[in-house]
Specification:
heterodimer, A: 231 residues, alpha/beta, 6-stranded mixed sheet, 4-stranded antiparallel sheet, 7 helices, B: 438 residues, alpha+beta, 2 domains, 6-stranded mixed barrel, 14 helices, 11 strands, 53% helix, binds adenosine-5'-diphosphate, binds magnesium ion
Chain lengths: 231, 438
């Protein structure tokens, strides 16, 4: 078996509310391998989003480890964790989270300039732009480059968000109910794009979904219940 | 790069920030323009005061002090170029006759109810000329009816009556012309049988002509008479008495050090003597004007504070709105420090642009103020700055780079505060909150 790209070992995570700790993840083991597409299923409140945040180094675990290509990364300094998020991990969320002031193209470019210094950006700008345009074309938005999120439909916004997650060439994409807010027809379109990207780019995916049919198309299904991964 | 990029786009899509920028601009503009006019004005006033005062003045001399010994002592100092004896006294001036003017009904009133207080300076014109600006003060009077007949010898000894030089403003106000006769009343204490008694002295003078310095306060109170005449009235038989000596320096820049040296040299023979530079002599007057300047700066600074609140308010509003973006920015690789910098950049950009525009506006309006004033006067008959009151030819201004730097510094510090607080709040916002709840 190959080494997992990203894995969680015995991750425990709880939230303290009014002096009382609510356990959300209660010793989760989870791996995603290179080029693998994992579906993460579970009832609402099972802890899927929390696991994704912990895996994506957005939220530190209370105990347990997060390994990236075999290396523990959960206790790295804040700047290094931010850099890993930028270089290795792409996020897609249910609610797109596009910046309303920026055009589709600028939103995608933003995903590329997070760690670049202004002077270096002057040199990299052209290449980055060309790639952003190419990504937007590949998700079918080649004609909507200059539109702002408010001028785009839900499906189009999510496609911009997918292009943005891809521009820094991550190893893993963590997608939290990416179609949860879309009607079934649009959702199908967006999912086709995700599967195509997976095929073409060989990026690993963790896909949180409620859709059993969609889960069936993934390599592996992981079910969660009450903060635990089921056998 | 994302910090600059986001800050720019956040700002550009929110015209409300123009409000804060305009406020900062207004504050900087006012601080630069008004203060530069004021310091220009202060510079002119100082020059005027200086032109009416000798480099050094020696005073508080014991009565009777004769000039000769003093003159020699003073001449020993290397920085002393020339000295002039003065006898300063106070009196009441009463016009008797105004040639060319209609006789006023109260002219024969024995009460002298229209007598005016005057500070008399007894001078020796020949010694005075190299020390003070008296030649210029006389020459600057252009009205033929007020001018001194012989500027080279303004107070001739052999005249029928002793001469008196009055200020142009006084002559105009009293409706006097050269040649008019006036009466002076002086008083001094005399010991009579061991008892101090006040004695009045009365003498007629003929107005020799007018003088004018640019120091309004000096002209307002002073008049010149021949020192010999004054001595004859006040110090009969006491010799060449002086109670003040005007000194011209070789190097006026070295005045402060010279004051100390001269004072020490004189102190042995003249206990209690005081020596002052022109600046020290007018210190209270100059300081009073300077204080007005400080108060004005304080008032204008309030505009800056208000502008800072504007920046703070608009930026806080924006941060509340933009906390939604913090989640995705963090997911893409931003740190709290990076988030802080995004909003700090916004605030600093607003302040910096406002400050730069304010400096430009301030400098340009100072340059073109006089043109603007002339235009206002020609077009609407409104004189914004009555310059003639202060003997100014134009609206003065003094653009002091240090002051501009101070304004810039203050503005940036305020901007940093205004931006820092909302930016700090943004940085402390939990990015997961933005991601979980839409
Ligand atoms: N910040 C928080 N404070 C308290 N409880 C939280 C917080 N975030 C998540 N939870 C709780 O953790 C549990 C799991 O949430 P989540 O991971 O979003 O589940 P899922 O994505 O599977 O629906 C829920 O019961 C939720 O109420
Ligand atoms: Mg969830």
């Amino acid at each position: 078996m190959t080494q997992p790209v990203l894995s969680a070992e015995k991750v425990v995570k709880g939230y303290t509310l009014g002096g009382e700790t609510i356990p959300v993840l209660r010793g989760v083991d989870f791996q995603v391998h290179a080029g693998e597409m994992v579906a993460l299923l579970g009832a609402s409140g099972a802890g899927k989003s929390t696991l994704l945040h912990v895996l994506g180094l957005l939220d530190p675990p209370d105990s347990g480890r997060i390994l990236l290509a075999g290396q523990p990364v959960h206790d790295l300094p804040i700047r290094e964790r931010a850099a890993i998020r930028h270089r290795q991990i792409g996020f897609v969320f249910q609610f797109y989270h596009l910046i309303p002031e920026l055009t589709a193209l600028q939103n995608v470019l933003l995903g590329r300039m997070m760690l670049t210094r202004p002077l270096a950006w002057l040199r990299e700008r052209r290449a980055a732009r060309a790639r952003a345009v190419q990504l937007l074309e590949s998700v079918g938005l080649g004609k909507r480059l200059r539109h702002r999120p408010a001028q785009l439909s839900g499906g189009e916004r999510q496609r911009v968000a997918i292009a943005r997650a891809l521009i820094a060439r991550p190893r893993v994409i963590l997608a939290d109910e990416p179609t949860g807010n879309l009607d079934s027809h649009t959702a199908a379109e967006v999912l086709e794009i995700l599967f195509r990207i997976h095929r073409e780019e060989g990026i690993s995916f963790v896909l949180v979904t409620h859709n059993a049919e969609l889960a069936a198309r993934c390599h592996r299904i992981v079910r969660m219940k009450d903060g635990l991964v089921l056998g | 790069m994302y910090r600059l990029f986001l800050a720019l786009h956040y700002l550009l899509s929110r015209p409300i920030h123009l409000l804060g920028m305009g406020g900062v601009m207004l504050g900087v503009w006012a601080l630069i323009l008004v203060v530069s006019i004021f310091s220009g004005f202060l510079r002119e006033v100082r020059a005027h005061v200086q032109s009416a005062t000798s480099d050094l003045t020696v005073f508080r001399l014991r009565w009777p002090t004769t000039y000769r010994g003093l003159e020699q002592r003073l001449a020993e100092d290397a920085n002393v170029a020339a000295t002039a004896p003065r006898l300063v006294w106070y009196g009441l001036l009463h016009p008797i006759e105004r040639p060319g003017a209609a006789p006023a009904p109260q002219e024969d009133l024995p009460t002298r109810a229209d007598a005016r207080f005057v500070s008399l300076i007894g001078i020796d014109p020949a010694s005075e000329r190299p020390v003070s600006g008296i030649e210029r003060w006389l020459g600057d009077v252009t009205e033929p009816r007020l001018r001194v007949a012989q500027p080279a010898d303004p107070l001739p000894r052999n005249a029928e009556l002793p001469g008196i030089l009055l200020s142009r403003t006084r002559m105009q106000r009293e409706n006097l012309v050269a040649g008019a006769r006036v009466r002076l009343t002086l008083a001094r204490m005399n010991a009579v049988n061991g008892e101090q008694q006040l004695h009045f002295l009365d003498r007629e003078f003929q107005v020799a002509g007018a003088f004018t310095t640019k120091h309004v306060g000096f002209d307002e109170s002073n008049a010149f008479v021949p020192i010999d005449t004054l001595r004859a009235m006040l110090a009969e038989g006491e010799g060449a008495v002086v109670n003040e000596v005007a000194v011209r320096l070789v190097d006026p820049a070295d005045a402060r050090a010279t004051v100390e040296r001269v004072r020490r040299a004189l102190l042995r023979d003249h206990p209690g003597v005081m020596v002052m530079t022109w600046e020290q002599r007018n210190e209270i007057y100059l300081q009073a004007i300077g204080h007005q300047g400080s108060i004005m700066k304080l008032i204008l600074f309030v505009i800056m504070v208000v502008a800072t609140f504007l920046v703070f308010a608009t930026l806080s509003m924006m941060v509340v709105e933009k906390t939604r973006d913090i989640g995705i920015l963090t997911a893409m690789g931003a740190t709290p420090a990076g988030v802080l910098q995004v909003f700090l950049t916004c605030g600093l950009a607003v302040t910096t642009v406002g400050t730069v525009l304010g400096i430009l506006a301030g400098c340009l309006s100072a340059f073109y103020l006089d043109a603007f004033r002339s235009w206002m006067k020609a077009a609407f008959g409104i004189d914004l700055f009555p310059t003639s009151v202060y003997h100014l030819e134009r609206v003065p201004y003094d653009l002091d780079p240090l002051w501009i730097a101070q304004v810039v510094g203050a503005s940036l510090v305020l901007g940093l505060l205004a931006a820092g607080i909302p930016a700090w709040r943004a940085a402390r916002h939990d990015p997961l909150r933005s991601l979980r709840y839409e």
